[in-house]
């Protein structure tokens, strides 16, 4: 559930056409060619959508979209 | 007019940019960076930098004289001069007093205002009160910076972002229903740590150590400031519009603080505002802190981008943290 929502937001922010290509292993920067500011914008969109705060020191640990979804699941429990 | 308050508007604007242009290619020779990296992350292609003999008041004075000329107001008519800056000539006397002397505004009171990059919006709010209530008739407000003097030219994260310049506006009474419709200001001291110049004040006076540790230069946490800026720009604009019973659809032209094109486009997207309605000049000047908005406004006016009857929104955000927005009916 959370993962699907995360994928939808990321696809919107980064204009990804093939949503099916995004898996938990997909990396924002390596696979979707996001730069550091794109990543910040994705984090902001997620913060707004899930009404949570994602501090920089947590965001720095995200390796892929699976990590992001897991983090948000924990935070919104 | 039933409020008993006078309508206050901008009578004329002026700006001054130093002649010396520093391109991204010039910076490639000083720090480990590239033109492409700077352009994709910031939108900046070049910036203007003063020479060693030029201080903030020199730029402020030239911008002020142009604004007085455009307004058809003489220096002697001024009741008050406010200069917004984070790079004053010195701690005291204020840069506003130096400008007062330079232009011969012998009847004007003068003070500096510190609100980081939001300085021009804070000035508008302060000046508007004095004129609306009838205390003063003509006020000169200036945003002026020589950020090149507080930049660490070895720090590639900050030295590519900033530039020098000054913009000024003369405010006075305008036709009822026109002029400044609203001003909205905000601050968050908790976030102040994200954008600072640590030393040189009473907390950490200048010493051999502060110089050796590069504490007299701008320090910035880029991603935190980016997040703050995108949200502040959208929220402040909406608050100022609401104060005069308008909404985002009523914006004819937006003149935002010029920090980063990515901040401007992300905020415009949040406001659902097409970029044609947004003035951008940071590609040529970089971020000039308190000078950015008045220089952008002056250019937009002189290029005919702002027409009579337009609802123009100014919005700024910066060190403090501070933010502010104003709606002006042209």
From TrEMBL, chain A:
Keyword GTP-binding assigned: no
A GO CC annotation given for this chain: membrane
Processing and modification events after translation: 4'-phosphopantetheine is transferred from CoA to a specific serine of apo-ACP by AcpS. This modification is essential for activity because fatty acids are bound in thioester linkage to the sulfhydryl of the prosthetic group.
Keywords: Cytoplasm, Fatty acid biosynthesis, Fatty acid metabolism, Lipid biosynthesis, Lipid metabolism, Phosphopantetheine, Phosphoprotein
Residues recorded as bearing O-(pantetheine 4'-phosphoryl)serine in the entry: 36
Localization terms from the record: Cytoplasm
Broad class of the protein's primary localization: cytoplasm
A GO molecular function held by the record: acyl binding
Span of domain Carrier: 1-76
BP GO terms, sorted: lipid A biosynthetic process
Listed Pfam families: PP-binding
Domain of life per record: Bacteria
Pathway annotation: Lipid metabolism; fatty acid biosynthesis
Primary role: Carrier of the growing fatty acid chain in fatty acid biosynthesis.
Family, similarity comment: Belongs to the acyl carrier protein (ACP) family.
Name assigned to this protein: Acyl carrier protein
Species assigned in the record: Paramaledivibacter caminithermalis (strain DSM 15212 / CIP 107654 / DViRD3) (Clostridium caminithermale)
Annotated gene: acpP
TrEMBL record, chain B:
Domain Beta-ketoacyl-[acyl-carrier-protein] synthase III C-terminal, first and last residues per copy: 244-330
Compartment(s): Cytoplasm
First-listed, main subcellular location of the protein, grouped into a coarse class: cytoplasm
Residues the record marks as active site: 117, 257, 287
Biological processes per GO annotation: fatty acid biosynthetic process
Signal peptide (UniProt feature, chain positions): none
InterPro entries, per the entry: ACP_syn_III_C (IPR013747), ACP_syn_III_N (IPR013751), FabH (IPR004655), Thiolase-like (IPR016039)
Keyword Nucleus: no
Keyword Lipid biosynthesis attributed: yes
Pathway: Lipid metabolism; fatty acid biosynthesis
Enzyme class: transferase
Entry keyword set: Acyltransferase, Cytoplasm, Fatty acid biosynthesis, Fatty acid metabolism, Lipid biosynthesis, Lipid metabolism, Multifunctional enzyme, Transferase
E.C. designation(s): 2.3.1.180
Oligomer and partners: Homodimer.
Task of the protein: Catalyzes the condensation reaction of fatty acid synthesis by the addition to an acyl acceptor of two carbons from malonyl-ACP. Catalyzes the first condensation reaction which initiates fatty acid synthesis and may therefore play a role in governing the total rate of fatty acid production. Possesses both acetoacetyl-ACP synthase and acetyl transacylase activities. Its substrate specificity determines the biosynthesis of branched-chain and/or straight-chain of fatty acids.
Family: Belongs to the thiolase-like superfamily. FabH family.
Domain remarks: The last Arg residue of the ACP-binding site is essential for the weak association between ACP/AcpP and FabH.
Name of this protein: Beta-ketoacyl-[acyl-carrier-protein] synthase III
Biological source species: Paramaledivibacter caminithermalis (strain DSM 15212 / CIP 107654 / DViRD3) (Clostridium caminithermale)
GN (gene name): fabH
